[in-house]
């Protein structure tokens, strides 16, 4: 091959790879409305698009995604993404965009009654059953959507959750919560698990096992700093899906012995534990814009020496690797 031909071949290959890269990089974003239990919630959806990623601004948040871009041809796994108490559908936008670039459709509801605008169910007994049902409603809505539905591979549906969102995704894969355990815990150990227990609004209904909330369409779960005290002996006897649990070593909101450690004791080898010794409870939330930091307070601040973006880069890769492995066609 002559020098000119070689140079031309390299140029052509670079051009082709550049197009492929642009296609892979393109992420679309849109909001859809989903009804659950007679209430309507807003759900953010990120997905791969042939349109190169632009800049979408939603309130104070900016994202590298193109609003209302068309969904690229292909067959995709679907990830339900559940935020923590008082959060919002954009809490984990960076992780969602990363996963969309990797070939997943990611849907994050703003949980009705337990978000930054509406906290009427926050800390109540009702919230423990409403949240998993809201995630199932999102799954119903997207599988039935004329654009998204035919592109979703129903064998590759998973759920990711943070804090109480972590509880919610574990409920979807078969974890049965018992609010009587929660009530006893916060009577006996309130001073040792104070942030969690002070959030509750006991009203006499914190008793008994919750109804069946399992959604067998969800094939895997990732729970980051999950609430786990609501699970007791036998809670995961019906759970068969693979699970990845992330323990944040500097978590001062949830005391690990009753939360992640309790879940690991109950699930044993069915769950994979990933340790992050220096991460705090709110580290999994995308960095906040400067204009919100003072208003948001503790969730927006990191201790000296902790780099939230570096942590997110690391945990995002760990989550993606886990999902790709357990939802591959040859996984058993």
In terms of structural class, how would the helical and strand content be classed? alpha/beta
Form type = globular
In N-to-C order, the SSE pattern is HEEEEEEHEHEHHHEEHEHH
Number of strands: 11
Query: What percent strand?
Result: 15-25%
Average pLDDT, rounded to a whole number, is 90
Q: pLDDT below 50 for ≥5 consecutive residues: which ranges?
A: 1-24
Distance between the termini: 48 Å
**Whole-angstrom Rg:** 21 Å
In helices, the fraction of residues equals 25-40%
Continuous helix count: 9
Main β-sheet: number of strands, strand sense, barrel status?
A: 9 strands, mixed
Strand order, sheet with most strands: 5-1-2-7-6-8-9-10-11
What characteristics describe this protein?
alpha/beta, 11 strands, 332 residues, 9-stranded mixed sheet
């Amino acid at each position: 091959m002559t020098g000119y031909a070689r140079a031309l071949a390299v140029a052509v290959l670079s051009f082709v790879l550049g197009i492929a890269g642009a296609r892979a990089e393109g992420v679309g974003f849109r909001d859809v409305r989903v009804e659950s239990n007679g209430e309507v919630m807003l759900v953010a959806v990120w997905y791969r698009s042939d349109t190169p990623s632009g800049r979408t601004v939603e309130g104070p948040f900016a994202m590298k995604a193109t609003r209302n871009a068309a969904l690229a041809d292909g067959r995709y796994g679907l990830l339900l993404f559940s935020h923590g108490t008082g959060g919002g559908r954009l809490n984990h936008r960076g992780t969602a965009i990363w996963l969309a670039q990797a070939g997943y459709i990611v849907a994050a509801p703003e949980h009705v009654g337990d978000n930054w605008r509406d906290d009427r169910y926050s800390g109540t007994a009702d919230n423990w059953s409403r949240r998993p049902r809201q995630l199932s409603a999102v799954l119903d809505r997207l599988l039935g959507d004329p654009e998204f539905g035919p592109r979703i591979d129903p064998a590759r549906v998973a759920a990711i959750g943070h804090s109480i969102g972590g509880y919610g995704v574990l409920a979807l894969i078969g974890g049965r919560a018992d609010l009587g355990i929660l009530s006893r815990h916060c009577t006996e150990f309130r001073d040792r698990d104070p942030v969690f227990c002070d959030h509750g609004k006991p009203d006499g209904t914190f008793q008994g096992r919750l109804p069946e909330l399992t959604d067998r369409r969800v094939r895997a779960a990732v729970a980051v700093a999950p609430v786990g005290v609501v699970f007791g002996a036998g809670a995961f006897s019906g759970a068969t899906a693979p699970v990845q649990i992330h323990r944040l070593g500097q978590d001062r909101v949830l005391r690990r012995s009753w939360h992640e450690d309790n879940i690991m004791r109950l699930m044993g080898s069915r769950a994979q534990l990933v340790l992050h010794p220096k991460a705090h409870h709110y580290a999994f939330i995308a960095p906040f814009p400067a204009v919100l930091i003072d208003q948001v307070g503790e969730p927006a601040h990191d201790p000296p020496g902790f780099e939230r973006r570096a942590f997110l880069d690391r945990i995002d890769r760990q989550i993606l690797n886990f999902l790709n492995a357990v939802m591959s066609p040859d996984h058993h």
